[in-house]
C-alpha cells in the first residue's frame, strides 16, 4: 500500500469514534464507556475504562504514562504514551492487554493517533530523534490483536501533537507544536526559534496548507473539529505569563487560521495554557479545559458568545455527550455540564477524582 492509499483509507468516511456520537441514553442513563489514562501519587500509571454512571470496567497498570486514547471498532482501545514515551498499549473491551507496540528505532510518540474509517490503519504522531523534533506520522496496520508499522509520512513540521480527520473535505489536520526535544527528554531546545504550524494533508499525502500563528512562542497542541470542517486549535504559550496572547485559533472552511475571539477576563483565566477541546455538534458550542487556571470555558462556535466560565480544579479531559459535556477534575468530583436549559447546569459524576491525564474518550 502506497502513501496515497494509506491516507485514502482514512477518509472514505469517518467512524463514530472519530467524530463522536451521543453517549447518554434519552432516559438519562449513562451507557457510554469512558477511556482515560490515570496516574497515582506513587507514580504508577494505569489504562482504565469506566461507565459514566461510575461503574468500573477495567483499570490496568502499565509501564509508561499515556496521554490520549483511541477507541477501536472492537470495543477496545489503544492507549498512546505521552512524549517521550515509546509504547502503544492495545486493550480489549474487557481490559485484556492484547498487544504492546514499541516505537521504531530513533522514534518516540507524542501521545496522539487517529483511526482510518475502515478500521484497518492507525496514524500516530512521532518524533524522529535523529533530527530532534522532525515530525513524522507512523502508519500502522491493525489486525485482530496486533499492530505493525508499515510506513511513515512527514508532518512538515516540528513536534507534531494531535491529528484529526476533517469529516467533509477528508483532509488530515496536524498540530505541529513547534518545540524541539531530545529523544528521552521533555526539555524544550528551541524556545527562541519555535516553528509551530497547522498543516493540512491531502489524500495522497501532499501538503495542502501550512499556517502559523502571529506569536512564534505559541505552541499548537490540541484540536477539535465540527462536522462542517470548522477546526479549533488550543495553544500553550511558552513566553512570559504577563504577555497578552491569543490561546485559541479557528479555521473555518475555506478561510485562514485566525484567533478565536476571547475576552480579556477569560484569556487571563487560561494562564497561558489550554488542555483539551471539544465541540458539541448540535449546540455548536466549543469547550476548553484550563488546568493551570482551574477552569472550564465554553463559547458559541459561530458567534463567539461566552456560554460558560466555571471554576473546576485541575480539569483536563472533556468530551461531548447529548446533554452537553463531561469533564474530569484532578482534585474534586468530575462534572456533567448540561447545556439543554436556558443556562448551563453543572452536576457531579460518580467517577473518581485525581490522576486523570489530559483526555477523555467515549465509546
Question: What does this entry look like structurally?
Answer:
The strands form seven sheets. A four-stranded antiparallel beta sheet has the order 3-2-1-28, with no helix packed on it. It has a four-stranded antiparallel beta sheet with strand order 4-5-6-7, with no helix packed on it. Strands 8-9-10-11 form a four-stranded antiparallel beta sheet, covered by helices on one side. It is built from three helices and 28 strands. It has a single domain, classed as Methylamine Dehydrogenase, Chain H (7 Propeller), CATH 2.130.10. 6% of the residues lie in helices and 45% in strands. It is mainly beta and 363 residues long.
Order of strands across the main sheet:
3-2-1-28
State the helicity in percent bands. under 10%
CATH architecture: 7 Propeller
Amount of beta strand: 35-45%
Using brief descriptors, characterize the structure shown:
Methylamine Dehydrogenase, Chain H; 363 residues; 3 helices; 45% strand; 4-stranded antiparallel beta sheet; 28 strands; mainly beta
Amino acid at each position: 500500500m502506497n502513501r496515497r492509499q494509506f491516507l485514502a483509507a482514512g477518509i472514505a468516511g469517518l467512524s463514530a469514534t472519530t467524530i463522536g456520537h451521543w453517549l447518554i441514553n434519552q432516559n438519562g442513563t449513562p451507557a457510554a464507556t469512558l477511556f482515560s489514562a490515570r496516574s497515582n501519587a506513587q507514580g504508577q500509571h494505569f489504562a482504565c475504562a469506566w461507565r459514566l454512571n461510575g461503574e468500573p470496567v477495567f483499570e490496568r497498570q502499565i509501564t509508561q504514562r499515556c496521554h490520549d486514547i483511541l477507541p477501536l471498532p472492537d470495543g477496545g482501545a489503544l492507549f498512546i504514551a505521552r512524549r517521550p514515551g515509546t509504547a502503544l498499549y492495545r486493550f480489549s473491551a474487557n481490559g485484556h492487554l492484547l498487544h504492546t507496540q514499541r516505537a521504531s528505532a530513533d522514534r518516540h510518540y507524542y501521545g496522539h493517533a487517529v483511526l482510518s474509517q475502515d478500521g484497518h490503519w492507525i496514524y500516530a504522531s512521532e518524533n524522529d530523534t535523529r533530527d530532534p523534533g522532525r515530525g513524522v506520522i507512523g502508519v500502522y496496520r491493525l489486525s485482530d490483536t496486533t499492530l505493525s508499522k508499515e510506513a511513515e509520512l512527514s508532518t512538515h513540521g516540528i513536534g507534531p501533537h494531535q491529528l484529526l480527520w476533517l469529516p467533509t473535505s477528508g483532509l488530515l489536520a496536524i498540530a505541529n507544536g513547534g518545540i524541539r526535544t531530545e529523544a528521552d527528554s521533555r526539555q524544550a531546545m528551541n524556545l527562541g526559534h519555535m516553528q509551530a504550524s497547522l498543516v493540512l494533508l491531502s489524500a495522497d499525502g501532499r501538503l495542502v496548507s501550512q499556517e502559523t500563528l502571529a506569536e512564534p512562542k505559541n505552541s499548537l497542541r490540541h484540536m477539535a473539529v465540527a462536522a462542517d470542517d470548522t477546526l479549533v486549535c488550543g495553544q500553550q504559550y511558552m513566553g512570559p505569563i504577563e504577555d497578552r496572547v491569543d490561546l485559541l485559533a479557528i479555521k473555518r472552511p475555506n478561510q485562514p487560521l485566525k484567533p478565536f475571539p476571547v475576552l480579556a477576563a477569560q484569556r487571563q483565566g487560561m494562564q497561558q495554557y489550554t488542555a483539551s477541546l471539544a465541540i458539541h455538534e448540535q449546540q455548536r458550542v466549543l469547550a476548553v479545559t484550563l488546568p493551570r487556571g482551574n477552569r472550564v470555558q465554553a463559547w458559541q462556535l459561530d458567534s463567539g458568545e461566552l456560554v460558560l466560565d466555571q471554576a473546576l480544579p485541575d480539569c483536563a479531559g472533556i468530551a461531548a455527550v447529548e446533554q452537553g459535556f463531561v469533564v474530569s477534575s484532578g482534585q474534586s468530583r468530575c462534572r456533567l455540564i448540561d447545556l439543554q436549559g436556558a443556562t448551563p447546569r453543572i452536576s457531579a459524576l460518580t467517577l473518581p477524582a485525581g490522576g486523570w491525564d489530559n483526555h477523555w474518550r467515549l465509546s
